[in-house]
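thread: overnight batch results

M.L. [08:02]
morning all. the overnight job finished for the chain we discussed friday. pasting input first so we're all looking at the same thing
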Amino acid sequence: MEILIKPIVTEKMTNQGEKFNRYGFLVNRKANKLQIKKAVEQLYGVNVESVNTINYGGKKKTRYTRSGVTTGRTAATKKAVVTLAKGETIDFYSNI
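M.L. [08:03]
and the structure it wrote out:
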């Protein structure tokens, strides 16, 4: 099971990274906080102080097409906000 799917690189998360040393990730819905902490520490080589998780349910979507109304749902996701120890940073832009 792959724990970390991708980092969240938005303006809000970038500001939290600079001010509060917090970084966001999209994670597997079945992963718990201990698994997320271990995955971040192994992948980036940092010390994690805390992990906060947020579960998002899928939204209902409706589209009007030529053949009628089509309804469906978007996928449910889970986000993790990881707080690092003082002096630790993650640079998402080093591989570009």
